[in-house]
Design a protein that fits this description.
The chain is mainly alpha-helical. It contains four helices and no strands. Helix content is about 60%, strand content about 0%.
């Protein structure tokens, strides 16, 4: 695994984690008791993108570091994942 692939995995994972982390820590105007005239009460109180971006960066870095540690440090790969589905390759030879 090259550094380019690690950066690509991190980039894709960062966006996935961002949309997962956005609702956490969100406070609505109704919960805060200050609903701005002309807005919906369930609208967010204020921008919280900086906190969401920081949380996303930390969580994504931990996930990628864990993945890198398992693949490089322990030497595990796709073949080491326990088989959940049956192996159809061995059945193909017996049918012919």
């Amino acid at each position: 695994m090259t550094w380019v692939s690690v950066i690509a995995i991190y980039f894709v994972l960062w966006w996935l984690v961002l949309f997962t982390m956005l609702p956490f820590g969100l406070k609505t105007q109704d919960e805060d008791g200050e609903v701005t005239l002309g807005t919906v009460a369930s609208a967010p109180k204020g921008p919280h993108m900086l906190r969401a971006a920081i949380r996303t960066t930390i969580v994504s870095a931990l996930i990628v570091a864990g993945f890198y540690g398992v693949t490089r440090g322990l030497g595990l790969g796709i073949d080491d994942i326990p088989r959940i589905v049956p192996d159809f390759k061995s059945d193909a030879g017996s049918q012919g």
